Amino acid sequence: MSRTTLLALGSLIVGLLVLWIKFIAWQITGSVALLSDALESIVNVATAAAALLAVIYANRPADANHPYGHHKAELFSAVLEGVMIVVAAVFILHEAWDSLFAPRVIQAPLPGLMINGAASLLNAVWAYVLISRGRSLRSPALVADGKHLRTDVVSSIGVAFGVAFAVFTGLPWLDPLMAALVAVNILWAGWGVMRHSVGGLMDEALPEEDLERIRAVIATEATGAYQAHDLRTRQAGSAIFIEFHLVVPGNSTVNAAHEVCDRVEAALESELPGAVITIHVEPEEKAKRSGIVVH
């Protein structure tokens, strides 16, 4: 089982545990704000399950029908996560609206907040693990799941302050108001997740810092060539695709040109592990005014 799959499976287990803990906190207090926190955990479980399935599918090798692999399955999972976040926010807003006109008395606030705090601490630790490991493994599904959990932690902190303030001031309408603010917060998070994932599905280029690294490697390692131009990149899940034209002397032998390409490919794969590189070799008369100048 790959590290990505293990992390996705861990997310599902952690999500189920946090969901159970948060529902206990809601049952003890009857707080609609804590209910909103628990409802968001249902989304966490559903999206963790979707991410696990996506990661398993994305790790399948390329085949005749999918010659570039199945990497984009992770991006579909991240889009689904964004959609489910929006659905959860709508449910929370509905519950908050009803409770605003029929405020509920919060029972046993201290035990409930302590239990909910334990769940939030678990989420915070796991969010850090998912984001850091997801980035190193170049897994959009894991990073999206981690960012969602991080948003959940922020929401939970806000909920805790809101519930405590409602109890302290004796203003029960603050409880549904905090639930509504939680809903707005996760709506924003859902938009961010979907925007990033749709960008991946539309084959957006790599970030500028990665492009600079690629240009630097080509300029340094392509000794024997004149220039590289028409650099194109895209990312599909954990896979990175790099394509460019490499201009070599017209009298170069096939072996000499191939040696330059091998050296550049090895350097790029070392800089960006897992990159799929395609180099089109051209003679010197194909050089362009703009391009990567080889040192």
TrEMBL record:
InterPro entries: Cation_efflux (IPR002524), Cation_efflux_CTD (IPR027470), Cation_efflux_CTD_sf (IPR036837), Cation_efflux_TM (IPR058533), Cation_efflux_TMD_sf (IPR027469), CDF_Transporter (IPR050291). Pfam families: Cation_efflux (PF01545), ZT_dimer (PF16916). The chain crosses the membrane at residues 41-59, 75-93, 113-131, 152-171, 177-194. Residues 11-202 form the Cation efflux protein transmembrane domain. It is found in: Membrane. Keywords: Membrane, Transmembrane, Transmembrane helix, Transport. It comes from the Bacteria. It is a multi-pass membrane protein. The keyword Membrane applies. Residues 206-284 form the Cation efflux protein cytoplasmic domain. Belongs to the cation diffusion facilitator (CDF) transporter (TC 2.A.4) family. NCBIfam families: CDF. This is Cation diffusion facilitator family transporter. It comes from Pseudodonghicola flavimaris.
